[in-house]
Amino acid sequence: MGASWQTALLVSVVGTAYPDRVAVQPAEMEAMRAWAGSHFGLGPASQPDRGISAVGPSWPFSFIYDDRSFTERCKDWKFERATRTRDLARIEHTLTWRDPKADLVVRCVLVEYTDFPTIEWTLSFKNEGSAKSAVLADIQALDSRFERADGGEFLLHHAVGSPADGSDYAPLETPLPPKACKIISAAGGRPTNSDLSYFNLEQPGGGVIVVVGWPGQWAARFDRDEGKSLRIRAGQELTHFALEPGEEVRSPLIVLQFWGGDYLRSQNIWRRWMIAHNLPRPGGNLPPPQLVSSSARVTNEMVGANEENQIMHIDRYVEERFDLDYWWMDAGWYPNVNGWPNVGTWEVDTTRFPRGLRAISDYARSKGMKTIVWFEPERVTPGTWLYKHHPEWLLGADGGTRLLNLGNPDARKWLTDHIDKLLTEQGIGLYRQDFNMDPLSYWRAADAPDRQGITENKYVCGYLAYWDELRRRHPDMLIDSCASGGRRNDLETMRRAVPLWRSDHPYVAESQQSMTIGVSLWIPYQGTATIASTNAPYYGGGWTPVEPYMFWSNTAPSLGLPIDIRERGLDYDALRRLVGQWRAISRYYYGDFYPLIACNRLKDCWAAWQFDCPDIGEGFIQVFRRSQSPYELARLKLHGLDADTTYTLGDIDGKQTFPARSGRELSEQGLPVTLSTRPAAIVITYQVRD
User: Fold this and answer.
1) Which residue from 228, 234, 523, 676 has the fewest beta carbons nearer than 10 Å?
2) CB count, 10 Å around CB of 276?
C-alpha cells in the first residue's frame, strides 16, 4: 500500500465526537480510493476513469499464460475500460485485455462501493478463438503487496472454519514479522471445512479486510519481506489448464475493505457492509429472526417420519404456544434403503407421505408457519435414480458414492427444473441444501494434465448458477446453506444463502458460546438449535430439564427448538418464558457485535458479548459464568456507547437491578456483573434514559 493509503488511515477515527463510532469515516473512503487508484487506475468518484494503458498500474492479480506472466504479456494486448453506475452505492468498472495473436480475452470486473471503504473484483478468461488456447496457470485473483506504517508489525486475524469439533469459528491471530510466511487454504474442496476464507490484516493505525469468495478449494499465502512489505496471494488453489474454443472460466471473488482505528470497530464495518449489500433479501427484505423446529431428534431426521406424526408434532407446538416460523423437515423424506444418507432419488416417499409433503406444508401454513425441506443433490449413492439413469452426469468411480457434476449443463438443467418442480408442488417455503462429502478428489481425478483445475472451476460456476436460477424462480424464498454444518460459508455462498445450522457440533454450552463470538464477527445471520438441557445428545427424546444457562448458550438469529414435544412433562412455562425473552432481544441481532471476554472454551472462565444498535441507543449483553469458574464477579467494558449519554440497564429476568450509568462509565470502568451460582447466565438490556 502506498504512502497515500498510510496517510489516510493514520487519521484517527477513535475518540471523535460521533455518537456512532462505527460510522465509516472519510479517511477510510480516501484510503480505499487511494489503493484503487494506484492498483486499478481509478480516480475520484467524480472522475472514475484515468484512461490508463494496458500496462497500467501495479495490477493486484497475476497469472501465467503460455509460460509468460500477465505483466509481460499485457504490454502487447489491446486494452479497454468501461464504467457504469450499477446503483446508488456501486460503480462497476470492466477492464478488458485481448491477446490479438491467440484470441484470449481477460476481463476484470471491479466494483467500487460509494458508501463503504470496499472494493471487489473477479477475473474471467475466455477463448474466443477456434483452436485450443495455450495453458493458463497459477491464476492469483489477488497478488499484491501491502506496506505497513512505522511503530508496529502486521497481525493477521483469521478463524477456524467448521470442523464440527467444538472449535468452529474460533478467532485466531498470527503475527507476521519479517520473513514470516503463512499459508491458509480450504480442505477437501469445501471452502470453510478447516479455515474461514475471511481475513483481517491489522497494522499500526488500521488495516484491511481481505476475503476470498470461492465455494471450492481456495488458497491464500501471506509472505513478509525483510522490510515493511507483505505480499498476499489468493485464488483457486490449482489452475493449470488450456481453454477449449468458446470456453470461459472465472476466478474467485476478492473483497478488500479498508479501515482505521481498532480491530473490533473494523469487524463491525464489515458486518454493516454484509447486511447492506450481501445478505439475501427474499421478497426484498432481510431475513427476520426466526424460531424453527422439527421432529428430527426423535424420528432419526425424517427416516421415521410420516404424515401423521409430522402433523401431530406441529399440533403439539401449536398447543404449547411456541408460534414457530418454520416447520423443518430434514433428511430422509425420500425413498431410502439404508437410512437418510442413501441420496439420489429426489421424490417424496409416498408410502409414508401418500399425499406428498404438500399435505404437511399446507397444514403448517394453516397454523401460521412455513416449511423448510432438506436436499442434498450433489452426493449420489448406489441404487438411487440418478445413479442408475444418469451415470454420465456423475463424477467418481462406479460402485461407490459419486458426485453430481454441476459443471455439466445438462445435469444442472435437470436438477434446476426438478427441484423447482418439487419446491412448487410440495409448497416448500425454504430450500435447505446440505453437502456431506469432500469433492476435491472427484474434481481433480476428472482433469487431464493440461486441464488441472477446470472441473472444479466449472463445478463452482454451475453451483452458483443453480442457486441463482432457483432464487430467480422463487424470489420470496430463503436458501439455507449446509455442508456437514458450516463447511460452505464462503462469501459467494453467503450472498445467496444463510447458514441455519452453523455446525454439526450442537448443544454443547462452551462450544456454542465460542461459536457465537467467532461467527458473529463475520456472518451476521446464522442459526443453531437448543434443547435447553446440558449436553443433549444429537438424537434422542424423552423428558429433559429446562436450564436457562443451556438455552442462552445456544441462541442465534435463527433458533431451533427440537425438544421432544411429545413429552407433556417438560417445563413448558419456563421454555415459553425463555423463548419470549429471546424474541424480545432478537431485533438487536442486526446491530454491531462486540466480544467482551476473549473467546475460549475453558470451563473455569466467563464468556460475554454485546449487540449494540447505536442508531436507537439500545442493545443487550449476554454473560455466562461457566461451571468451574471460581469468580462471582466480572467487570465488562462495553462498546459503541455515547460517552455523555446515560443508559438504563435491566436484567431480562428481573432478578437483578443495575443503576443507570453513563456511556463513559460503562466503557471505561465497565459494568460489574455478579453471578453467585455456576453455571449461570444473565441477559442484560440497555437503552438511552429518557
Assistant:
1) 676
2) 13
As beta bridge partners, residue 680 has 625
604-632 confidence digits (pLDDT tens): 999 999 999 999 999 999 999 999 999 99
User: Looking at 542, 573, 590, which one is the last position of a domain?
Assistant: 590
Same domain for 628 and 670, yes or no, is: yes
Residue 361 backbone phi and psi in degrees, to 5: -60, -45
What phi, psi does 35 have (nearest 5°)? -65, -45
Beta bridge partners of 374: 432
548 and 585 housed in the same domain: yes
Tell me the CA distances in angstroms from 170 to 132, 502, 602, one per residue in order. Answer: 46, 13, 13
615, 669: one domain: yes
One-letter amino acid at 271 equals R
If asked whether residues 574 and 561 sit together in one domain, one would say: yes
Same structural domain for residues 675 and 654?
Answer: yes
Q: Strand pairing partners for 560?
A: 292, 529
Distances (CA, A) of 349 to 127, 317, 418, 428: 46, 25, 16, 16
- Residue 576's contacts (CB-CB under 8 Å, 6 or more residues apart) are 320, 321, 322
Q: What does R_g of the chain's alpha carbons equal in angstroms?
A: 26
| CATH number of the domain that residue 682 is part of | 2.60.40.1180
What's at 14, amino acid-wise? V
486: DSSP letter: B
Residues 335 and 320 occupy one common structural domain:
yes
Indicate if 586 and 596 belong to the same structural domain: no
Cell numbers for 84: 457504469
Q: Which amino acid makes up residue 26?
A: P
Nearest residue to 569 via CA among 545, 597, 535: 545
Exposed / middle / buried, residue 645 (Cβ in 10 Å: 0-12, 13-18, 19+): middle
Q: Which three cell numbers stand for residue 113?
A: 462501493
Helices assigned H by DSSP within 474-586: 491-494, 509-520, 548-553, 572-585
Give 572's contacts (C-beta < 8 A, 6+ positions apart).
320
Q: Is 12 in a helix, a strand, or coil?
A: coil
pLDDT in tens, 102-159: 899 999 999 999 999 999 999 999 999 999 999 999 999 999 999 998 888 999 999 9
CA nearest to 264, candidates 528, 659, 637, 559: 637
Mean pLDDT, all residues of the chain: 94
Separation between Cα atoms, residue 331 and residue 343, nearest integer Å: 9
Q: How many Cα atoms are found within 13 Å in the side-chain-facing hemisphere of 573? A: 0
pLDDT digits (tens, 9 = 90+) for 422-461: 999 999 999 999 999 999 999 999 999 999 999 999 999 9
| Domain end point (choices 590, 610, 633) | 590
Q: How many domains does the chain have?
A: 2
User: Max CA-CA distance within the chain?
Assistant: 78
The verdict on residue 359 lying in a domain is yes
Kindly report the backbone phi and psi dihedral angles of residue 204, in degrees, each rounded to the nearest multiple of 5, phi listed first.
Answer: -55, 125
Tell me the whole-structure pTM to 2 decimals: 0.95
Range of the domain at 319: 289-324+326-368+530-590
pLDDT category at 43 given cuts 50, 70, 90 is low
